[in-house]
Description:
Blueprint: H1 2-18, H2 24-35, H3 42-46, H4 53-91, H5 109-122, E1 127-128, E2 134-136, H6 137-142, E3 167-169, H7 174-183, E4 188-197, E5 209-219, H8 224-239, E6 245-252, E7 255-264, H9 270-275, E8 281-290, H10 292-297, E9 306-313, H11 315-322, H12 329-332, H13 335-338
Parallel strand pairs: 1-4
Antiparallel strand pairs: 2-3, 4-5, 5-9, 6-7, 7-8, 8-9
The protein binds phenylalanine.
Amino acid sequence: xxxxxxxxxxxxxxxxxxxxxxxxxxxxxxxxxxxxxxxxxxxxxxxxxxxxxxxxxxxxxxxxxxxxxxxxxxxxxxxxxxxxxxxxxxxxxxxxxxxxxxxxxxxxxxxxxxxxxxxxxxxxxxxxxxxxxxxxxxxxxxxxxxxxxxxxxxxxxxxxxxxxxxxxxxxxxxxxxxxxxxxxxxxxxxxxxxxxxxxxxxxxxxxxxxxxxxxxxxxxxxxxxxxxxxxxxxxxxxxxxxxxxxxxxxxxxxxxxxxxxxxxxxxxxxxxxxxxxxxxxxxxxxxxxxxxxxxxxxxxxxxxxxxxxxxxxxxxxxxxxxxxxxxxxxxxxxxxxxxxxxxxx
Length: 345
Ligand code: PHE
């Protein structure tokens, strides 16, 4: 009795060894047969009742070994067959097929123009200062020598935040001058690119939001000649080595003396004729020597230091650079327009 029961174990072991499931489906059949809830090894465990006491231990060990053998074979085959299935899937990939093109974004023409300007000034030691678009009255106006009742506040129609007489959308990047001077002592040499807002009627030539790059240089002995030379350098880098500039006297509350700078584009092309209204001259920036009162407002000793500042508009330069006819295109975010700048970084 005992001998035949033991031989059943041998048969079962041989049967397990002989199994050759060739794929995952066959392996599942194997699992159900030997390891499932109604597996065929189970009855062999039941047989232990009929085994004489002295053989019970040996039988128990061997029936466990049979079960383990089934489990081991299952795990091993599972790994093998799963790997084979993965390999088969990889082999289905056609490595010679052309790749799917990755959709590439493009930089905005305003950003491209600003980056060009930034690079030009970085070459002569200016560093970028970045600051907030939602500004308080003090940094935008008061510090810049434009107190509340000053007529110059009318020059810029300001967007105030709802219910506020204090918080506004900055009307120029000159607010960054105040921000920087308040926490830095000279030498200061910064450019501040960014977006500004004015309550203006939107047309092909002007918009209620636009971009400026501010420049500020404060140190001992900074003169108007330094300003002029810096601007000439900029114009030549930006518009070509033959570029001509002219400075016209002007007025800003925060500079004295003040000027506006035009660049000569000529009237050879229809585009330049239109952009310069037939004069050949394109106005691109306001500038001047920082008013000593501004330095003092920001905690800089005006008896020791002098400085120059300028603020240039970006949109007009971008119109020229990329031959664009209407300023509103910059703010519509039409991808058919924006995609045309994908080639440049
Ligand atoms: N902030 C002036 C403007 O927006 C430009 C400017 C900047 C003029 C710095 C002088 C000095 O028109």
